[in-house]
């Protein structure tokens, strides 16, 4: 049996190959002449939007059912077309566009086109440009006896994007700047963190200069205690001020520091009635750190 099969395959192989190719070609010829339906998800291209506008929300793809001859459908399968959406006459706001208004250029046809969804939604806003402040978060601490005096951003950055989104953005952050064990001033290029892909910045990174100086200390006394509590909540503290606070930083920052630049506060909003011994949060200007505070905790009553 095995011998007969091998003999059939090996006998006159060229004729068998030709017959196979002919049969396949005949099948394709018949197939491309018949009618079929073919569902395909295709990309949507948004065209002719005025430069002063920007798309905030839209669909990127749409499901389409193509019906017609197999040859035409084969071209759709091999080279999917894109649905073109003309936005030249659209205005700011939510726009509902009929799927029938989409133009789908076909290289081979004719084909009947049906859409699974009759409409698509497009949200358009005005495109604006805005200068933003660049903030530089730091990690680590300079070498003992040194402190950051100032971080200068040497570049100006503008953001372009939807007007409504930019109304709520006034600053950008860079990647974290490592100042661990630094004792001299230096410059560094830092990447910007863009909060949305719809925003375009004039720069992807900024050059910053970090000024480091020898640190000094200063002692302040009698800094008032602020109690933060919820409506209907009452509280009293045994002491109403921080007796002593020692801070450290660069001379330019520490020598000008006064009690008005510091906030000592305790948040009580999540506490029930009772007696508590709690530490205070000490809020200081940038690059100034607390070294010692007296008292460390405050005795208080919530009622």
What does this structure look like?
The protein is an alpha+beta fold and 303 residues long. The protein has 3 domains: 34-126, RNA Polymerase Alpha Subunit, Chain A, domain 2; 136-214, RNA Polymerase Alpha Subunit, Chain A, domain 2 (Beta Complex); 216-302, RNA Polymerase Alpha Subunit, Chain A, domain 2, CATH 2.170.120. Helix content is 16%, strand content 50%. The protein is built from 5 helices and 23 strands. The protein has helices spanning 2-10, 13-33, 70-78, 163-166, 251-254; strands at 35-47, 53-57, 61-69, 83-86, 93-98, 111-115, 119-135, 138-139, 146-153, 157-162, 171-174, 177-178, 186-193, 200-201, 205-214, 216-228, 235-237, 241-249, 263-267, 274-279, 281-283, 289-294, 297-302. Strands 2, 5, 7, 9, 10, 11, 13, 14 and 15 form a 9-stranded mixed β-sheet that branches. The longest helix is centred in the first third of the chain and has 21 residues, at 13-33. Mean pLDDT is 89; it is low at 18-32.
List the keywords.
303 residues, alpha+beta, RNA Polymerase Alpha Subunit, Chain A, domain 2, 3 domains, nine-stranded mixed sheet, 5 helices, 16% helix
Distance between the termini: 100 Å
- Total count of helical runs of at least 4 residues: 5
Largest sheet: 9 strands, mixed
What's the overall geometry? Answer: elongated
Q: What does the radius of gyration come to?
A: 36 Å
